[in-house]
Each structure stands twice: as structure tokens, then as C-alpha cells.
């Protein structure tokens, strides 16, 4: 099958550090190519290149439907449009291939008529249920996953440290986490919070001031996935504190990657996050500093119980959340579109 992904208007590189949607596209596309499909990704890249069996085709500027249609391979069997519904709908009367929309963020869908798209792929049941009212076409859920060659359990000492990996924006709950950490540290002296990520993909002001809000916070910036594996393995907990008031977080990769390393993630009850975790005790009420602080303190004070969750978390994501397994489900959905 000839599959062409059409990425949203964002510059990235297959060999660089990826945001959540880019991570998913990169891994699913690579896995589909390994299954003997011809895979192309149209997007904004530093240059056109081929990497891990996938052709990354730089569309250039201005990035939009006209340029995309111009560069779309003529023998494409199916297009998978990532996050930008306008690009998906623009293909309706131009190209005869099947059209799939991969709803990889929390932007509200405009009404989708049955003949507008052949399939919409959601990344969690919560996201699918929320947007179903706007979507009159066929839908399927394919979760995000992890690369087992990168994220795995290592035999290292576990310290009283917390890891956050994600965008440094209010929608992701980073401010709430810092406030809860400050409360938790009063009960657990020496506790540290290690923050990895940036606000680049969200085009927001720098959050460097976070480091000065409370003792024990260390900002690591954008790091490789190999570095995140090391951090997850050393940490007692990770936290995914997304704000339910500001954003329906569909299903971030970080909760899965953390568990693959045996690190239990505390997640808010926002969007698809509760679907991601091995045990319901890891879910707290979103947008509540007190609820998150209490969850942190309980997990640390009950250290042996938290350590016992590590094996459960690793079993929870292996093998079902491996990208190669998810790509098979993704391909089946494309064939049935």
C-alpha cells in the first residue's frame, strides 16, 4: 500500500527531538514501512530525506492545501492527515485516494459529513467519545505507544525524585505540578522534581522562571529519548498533570514511555490519561493542587507499595503498546477505510 501522511504546519526533523504528535507519526510511519508499505510524509522539514524506510518530503512555504496537493504522490492509495482538518477536507475533490484524519490533538473537530472522510483515527476512547458528536464518518481508536529498543527497565537505584516530560505550558499542567511539588516537599525534604521539555512547539514564552519558584526543581530542557529512559528508571514517579479545564489531553506518549521503564506515572483524570495507566490509584483529580500534592505524598510515604507498582507498569505496556504492534492495528484500519 502507498501511504502518504500529511503533517500539520510545524517544522521538525526525523532525526531531531520530537513533540508528541511527531513522535507518533515518526514511529507509526517507520513501522508501516517495515511492513512493506511505501510511506511518504509531507511536511515542513529542513530538507527532503529518506530515513528508516520513510520518504520525508519537504513541502516548503507557504505551507497549505495548495502546496500539499501539488506535492502529493500521484500513486497514493491513502492519505493520513495529522491534526489539520482543513488539509484533509481540501483533498476531497482533488485526489481519488482514500482520506483518513488522524486526530492527534485536542482541537475541536468541525462537523464532518459522512462523505468528507473515509475514516477518523482517535488516540483514546475518551477523545473518540467526546468528538463523536461532530464526526459522522467511521472511527477507530489506536493508542500511542513506545519504542522497546529505547524505553525499558534498567537495574539502577530508585531515588526520591519526580520526572515531568512534556511541553512547558499551562494546558499540560506544569504550573499546577510545581505548586503541588512545593507542598509535597514540605512533607518530604530532599524531594526533587526534574523537568524535561520546552514550549517551542506551542510557540509560547520561555518557562525558565520555573526553576526559581521552589527549591529542588531542575530544568533539563529538551533531551533525547535515551536520556528520558535514564531519568524514568531513576525516578520513583513521573507525573502527567494535564489540565481538564484548558484541554482534553488525548493520550500522551509520556505515560506509556514512563511505564515501559517501570516508573509509575501519576496522571490527571483528563481526557485519555486514565486509559493509559496500569492501576487506577495512579489517577488524581485534574486542576487540583491539593489532590496532586496528596497523591505525591502518599506515593512517597508508601514507598514500598509504589516500588511494587513498577513491575505492574512495565507488564501493562508490554507488548500491547509497542509501536510495531500498534502499526499493525493502524494498517488494518487503513485497509478497512
Strands, helices and their partners?
Layout: E1 2-11, H1 20-34, E2 38-44, E3 49-51, E4 54-58, H2 65-71, E5 78-82, H3 85-90, E6 98-103, E7 119-122, H4 125-131, E8 139-141, E9 159-165, H5 174-187, E10 192-196, E11 217-221, H6 225-234, E12 235-240, H7 253-260, E13 265-268, H8 273-276, E14 283-284, H9 289-301, H10 303-317, H11 323-336
Parallel strand pairs: 1-2, 1-5, 2-4, 5-6, 6-7, 7-8, 9-10, 9-12, 10-11, 12-13, 13-14
Antiparallel strand pairs: 3-4
Helix pairs in contact: 1-11, 5-9
Overall geometry comes to: elongated
Low-confidence stretches: 201-206
- Level-1 CATH class name of the largest domain: Alpha Beta
Number of strands: 14
Strand content: 15-25%
Structural class: alpha/beta
Through-space gap between termini: 13 Å
CATH homologous superfamily classification of the largest domain = Glycogen Phosphorylase B
H/E series: EHEEEHEHEEHEEHEEHEHEHEHHH
- Strands ordered across the widest β-sheet: 3-4-2-1-5-6-7-8
Return the CATH architecture of the largest domain: 3-Layer(aba) Sandwich
Task: Count helical runs.
Answer: 11
CATH topology of the largest domain: Rossmann fold
Q: What is the mean predicted local confidence, pLDDT?
A: 89
Q: Tell me the helix content.
A: 25-40%
Radius of gyration: 20 Å
In total, the number of domains comes to: 2
Main sheet record: 8 strands, mixed
